[in-house]
Amino acid sequence: MSNHQDPVFKFLKPLIIYAYHGECILCRAPRSGLHVHHVDFNSSNNSALNLVPLCNKHHKFVHTHSVTRLHVLDYKNMIILSDLNDFIREYFNI
Ligand SMILES: [Zn+2]
Ligand SMILES: [Zn+2]
Asked: Which residues surround the ion ligand 1 when the cut-off is CB under 5 Å?
C-alpha cells in the first residue's frame, strides 16, 4: 500500500493528518490511527498533494474500489501543501 520506511513519507504523514484536521476525508470522523493514502496509488509519489488521511475502513474501501478522486482540500490548504513540497525538495535534496 505504501512505503512507510521512506523518510519523506514519515515526515509528511503527521502534517497531512494535521492539514485535514485529523479526520478521515471520507467519513470526517476524527479518529486515532489514521492511515495516509497515496491518491494515485503510487507509493513513491510523496508529493504532499498526493497524500490524504483515511480511517482503516475507508483505506480498505478506496483500494478495493480503486477510488482515485479524493482531494477535498480548499484552495488555501492546497497552497500550504504546495509550499510543503518545496520545503521537502530542499530539505531532503530531491
Ligand atoms: Zn473513514
Ligand atoms: Zn492506500
From this structure: 24, 26-27, 55, 58
Alpha helix segments (H runs only) across 1-94? 7-19, 56-64, 75-91
**Cα(19)–Cα(64) distance, rounded to whole angstroms?**
25
Q: Which ligand is nearest to the CA of 66?
A: 2
Q: Which tens digit of pLDDT belongs to each residue from 15-43?
A: 999 988 899 999 987 777 899 999 999 99
Cβ burial of 91 (10 Å; 0-12, 13-18, 19+) is exposed
Q: Read off the pTM.
A: 0.81
Return the ligand number nearest the Cα of 54.
1
* 1: confidence class by pLDDT, cuts 50, 70, 90: very low
